[in-house]
Amino acid sequence: MNPKLREAAGTLKSVLGLQTEPVAVKFLTDATQAQGYEALPNRRYCQMVMEARRGRKVVLTADNIACPAAAAVFGFKPLPPKLASGEMLVAFGIFGSPEAGKATLDSMRRLEPGEYAAVALSPLETADFEPDVVVVEAAIEQLMWIALAAKYETGGRAQFTTAILQATCEDTTVLPFLTGDLNATLGCYGCREATDMAQDEAVIGFPGGMLETVVHGLRELEHKALPRVRSKSAYHRLAGCSEAGGNTGQE
To answer: For each of the chain's 251 residues, which pLDDT tens digit applies?
Structure first.
C-alpha cells in the first residue's frame, strides 16, 4: 500500500464528500502481474469500475471481458462486424442509422491490438501500483471541483470530448491515458444500463501523473471557494429578498 496514494484518496473523499472510492487503473503487459486481483467472470469494464468503487481489486482480460466495444478499445479483441458496421447500435435504439453508429465507433481512440494483456482496477487508497489513470464516478458538482483543481495553478480551459458511448472505457480511461489530459463524460447507454450509476452522476478520468496536481488544487479550493459555493449564500440572499418583496406586496 502506497502512503501517498492513500493520502490522496483521503483528500479526494474528504474534500468532495465522495460516497465511493476513487479508482486507480493500470494497464498490464502481463496478466500475471495482477496477483491477488479478482478476475470476475463475464464483466464489462464499467462494471469493474463499479466493483473497484465498492472496494474490490479486480482485473479484466480478453478472457473475462463481456463488452465487445470495451474489448476493442483495450486492444483485447477486434470489433464484431455487426458492431463495427453500426447495425448493432441501431438495434439498441442508440442511433438512427448504421452510418451514424459506424461514424461514432470510427471516432474512438483505441489501444494497439495486443499491446496490453490486462487492465487492473483498485480503490486508489489501497492500490499497490502507480496508476496510469484515476477514474472518479460521482455527482456532477463533485466532478466540477476535480476539473477546476486540475487548472488551479495554470488556468485555461478544460476540453472535454465524448461520443456519449463507451464513457468509462474510452472517454475516461483510454483517452486520458493516450492524451495525458483530463477528460469527463456525461455517461453512456452501457454504463448507465449495466451499473449503479445514478441519474445525477457522471464520470471523470485523469492521468495518474496529474493526481498530485488535483489533490493540491482541491486542498486550496477547500479553504474558500468550495465552502462558499456549497453554502449558496448568494442564492439564499436572493431568495430572502424575493420572499421579503413578496411579503411586502401582500401586505
So the answer is: 799 999 999 999 999 999 999 999 999 999 999 999 999 999 999 999 999 999 999 999 999 999 999 999 999 999 999 999 999 999 999 999 999 999 999 999 999 999 999 999 999 999 999 999 999 999 999 999 999 999 999 999 999 999 999 999 999 999 999 999 999 999 999 999 999 999 999 999 999 999 999 999 999 999 999 999 999 999 999 988 877 776 544 43
Which among 177, 209, 214 is positioned nearest to 27, based on CA atoms? 177
The model's pTM = 0.94
- Structurally, the chain folds into a number of domains equal to 1
Rounded distance between C-alpha atoms, residue 138 and residue 218, angstroms: 15
Residue-number span of the structural domain to which 58 is assigned: 3-245
Residue 250 belongs to a domain:
no
Q: CA–CA separation, 36 vs 163, rounded Å? A: 34
